[in-house]
Amino acid sequence: MLERIFGKKQQCFYENSSAQIIQGDSFQILGKIRPESIDLIFADPPYFLSNDGVTCNGGRMVSVNKGGWDKIGEVSTQIADKHKFNRKWIKLCKRVLKLNGSIWISGTLHNIYSIGMALEQEGFKIINNITWQKTNPPPNLACRCFTHSTETILWAQKADKKSHHYFNYELMKELNGGKQMKDVWVGGLTKPSEKKEGKHPTQKPEYLLERIIQASTQPGDVVLDPFCGSGTTGVVANRYGRLFIGIDTEDEYLNITKRRLEKEINVLGNGER
């Protein structure tokens, strides 16, 4: 698969018959992918939340700092730097996305407004603004504002008259009890069972990716995650017969992804689903 997408063999951190994870800078790797070769991009980019504050995790007060990858410059320049970062990776994603492909991007209020503007500036049209309402969000320790219990997921396509995104309307309606599915999705945070191979601070629950991937791809399509973290996108893509390419820089998270993909292969091979 990599030869078809990249044009020549790339060194992988891990690969199997339907998935490859590559260690490296997303900007550099995205630049090597053939133009218009990807059917779906799901991105969960840095939220830039690492500001030395605190939050609640498992009933304990913990730091919100996630790592150097989630930090940006001084306050005086961070807004411009954040937006420049978002425009850069979104522009690279547009180059590799097929004309009829689509991109989904998850974020919080700290980053999602920049992302929405960057999408339009780089030639995308927003299809839906999904609100993910968490049923069990961490409590607000400061007690100075309402509890943060939602995230936004933007679904977009290329702003081209010839672009016709794929949407499995009938399946989404079926999954919603025979009624049209709305743009507010309600559910819990990531289950402990999905973190057995290791934890990532912004790991998304599998049910979100199951809905996204089934809604906007078909079996055999290529799914790309340029910030793949703990690999939820890849696990779900493989589960539903899609091909997957994931990119990340961190050894710790790449190893989590590897273990989760291997576990998924074993489950599928044993016919446990």
Could you characterize what this model shows?
The chain has a 9-stranded mixed sheet with strand order 1-2-11-10-3-6-8-7-9. It has one domain (2-269): Rossmann fold (3-Layer(aba) Sandwich). Helix content is 32%, strand content 24%. It is built from 8 helices and 11 strands. The protein has 273 residues and is α/β, with parallel strands linked by helices. The chain is globular and about 55 Å long. The chain starts with a helix and ends with a helix. The mean pLDDT is 90.
Which ranges are low-confidence, i.e. pLDDT below 50, for 5 or more consecutive residues? Answer: none
Overall pLDDT level:
90
Number of strands: 11
Radius of gyration: 18 Å
The helix count comes to 8
Structural class: alpha/beta
What oligomeric arrangement do these chains adopt? single chain
CATH class: Alpha Beta
Shape-level CATH architecture: 3-Layer(aba) Sandwich
Q: First CA to last CA: what distance?
A: 25 Å
Examine the coordinates and then state which fold CATH places here, giving the name of the CATH topology.
Rossmann fold
H/E element sequence: HEEHEEEHEHEEHEHEHEH
**What composes the largest sheet?**
9 strands, mixed
Strand order of the largest sheet: 1-2-11-10-3-6-8-7-9
Question: What is the percent of helical residues?
Answer: 25-40%
Q: Which homologous superfamily in CATH is the superfamily?
A: Vaccinia Virus protein VP39
User: How many structural domains does the protein architecture include?
Assistant: 1
